Amino acid sequence: MKNNYTLVAVNAKYIHSNLSLQYIRSYCQTKNISLNFLELNINDNIDKIINDIYLTKSNVFAFSCYIWNIEIILKICSSLKKIIPDSIIILGGPEVSYESIELMNCHKLYIDYIIYGEGEITFYELLRYLEDEKTDIKSIQGLIYKNNESISMNKKRKEISDLDSIPFPYKDISNYKNKIIYYETSRGCPFQCQYCLSSIEKSVRYFSLDRVYKDIDYFIENQVKQVKLVDRTFNSDKKRCLSILNYIISKNGKTNFHFEISPKLIDEDFITVIKKAPVNLFQFEIGIQSTNPATLRAVRRKELFKDTKSNIKSVLDLGLFHIHLDLIAGLPCEDIYSFENSFNDAYSLQPDMLQLGFLKLLKGSGLRTNAVKYKIEYRDYPPYEVLSTDCLSFENMLLLKNVESMLNTFYNSGRFIKSIAYIEKKYFNSPFKLYLALADYFNKKGYLRNALKNVDLYSILYNFVSDSYGMTLTFNELLKYDYFVSFGMPIPSFVKRFENSGIKALVNSFLKNEENIKKYLPELQSMDIRKKLKAIHFETFYIDVTGDLKEKEVVLFKLKNTKKECKNKIISIDINKLKE
């Protein structure tokens, strides 16, 4: 019977794409082998996932495995083998490329093959074997398989030296219109960070620039919304990095490109290139991880914060791009006080997003090998997250989890920019202590256990300040401003509003004046007054919330567009100007 093959991607979210299986499908297509491709996600109902896989009417299934999908994949495979007893199940990916024999032994009733390491060539050779058993299975490098009652592990496959031999993975982009496209221009990393699997590779391999330019053209021409590069350190080769950035800028496209870069390698040449880019063409993710020198030495990370702070700031100061900074809790030699310093150091840079992540002891990583040395206790199941270390207790970890929740709610959401900055500067000498205090308040009130609506968060923050420090006019107005920017009207009733009986008449008069419209709100030109009023929100403020915070009556106008556009289109008018 001829085999029917299906590659199954179980992604973390619907908007994600699976690069590795796309590579495998494209590589096999060049060998005239057609494969079904099924893209699902871990939030789907498992019964629906199994049904969708079954309905492909395939008998060979291949899965790409990561820490965030391995558990559901094993459950899927167990059921598939019962439904289709003669089916062949193949696993690959980073989560099964280490401690593979143990995994196969534990699940040998339904796992038939494991591909470890790079999978394109190994998968193709395995398919040839499955089609024609004259092929010697022992000759397939990078393969683990059942051999009667034992498990056999073939020699490791050498890394592909010519990456251009791997075909472009996205031949049909139509299914990815509203998804993030994952893409790479290189494999490997020059650094040795002990929490990362990329440190295992001893060198960096690159796709040719001609190939990369061609791929970029394809993304831009097809108006892909975002391309997220998975290169571990995109700027590791300065000349190459700048060439690619310049090329993207020259194309005048709308596609956003996201890069992970090393702060150590940011220099004047890098800044000179990126400041030519239009707003939001790029996103940069910069790993700080810790600012404790002892911690950085322990994980073999040679990027001291004192040496890289100004580099990061030079990118942020441009104000052109979304900047994402990373911290990792649970690294060696970092206690709660040291982490507070790391947090405050990173927070002081005011990135668009500060991600507080928790150490994962990945299979094959240096820190997993040295877990006993640093007394790192971690969960035995994926994602192998740290429980405690010789410096951080489990109780400390719980505190940091709550701080992370508050950070995401009040900083990373971007909905409390002015009000949270006011609280931090007026009442706290440490940003970390602000989020710790918020976490304590949420915990005491029982909010951490409940799902809260956005309007509830404004009310809670209002009460947090009122209960702890007393309400001020400035905070009231800044919280009102944050709500107005994010959601418009109506303003929640708990916020004090200063209604002016004559304000609507003044606004009407202001909007009827075409000179005012042309100067302040050109988007409303040619509309009659009724349409103008429908197209805007307006609210009175008793301090200049967009300026120097002096007690000066102003009216803010906000266009009713998308949230992103609204945040960029807030017009502040002195009430005295409305009266003119």
What's the end-to-end separation, in Å?
86 Å
CATH topology of the largest domain: pyruvate-formate lyase- activating enzyme
Question: What is the number of independent domains?
Answer: 3
Integer average pLDDT: 92
- Mind describing the biggest β-sheet? 7 strands, mixed
The helix fraction, in percent, is 25-40%
CATH superfamily membership of the largest domain, which one? tm_1862 like domain
Overall form = globular
How would you describe this structure to a colleague?
With 580 residues, this protein is an alpha/beta fold. It has three domains: 5-153, Rossmann fold (3-Layer(aba) Sandwich); 173-392, pyruvate-formate lyase- activating enzyme; 503-579, no CATH class. Helices cover 39% and strands 17% of the residues. The protein contains 22 helices and 20 strands. The protein has a seven-stranded mixed sheet, sandwiched between helices. The protein is globular and about 90 Å long. The termini are far apart. Mean pLDDT is 92; it is low at 562-567.
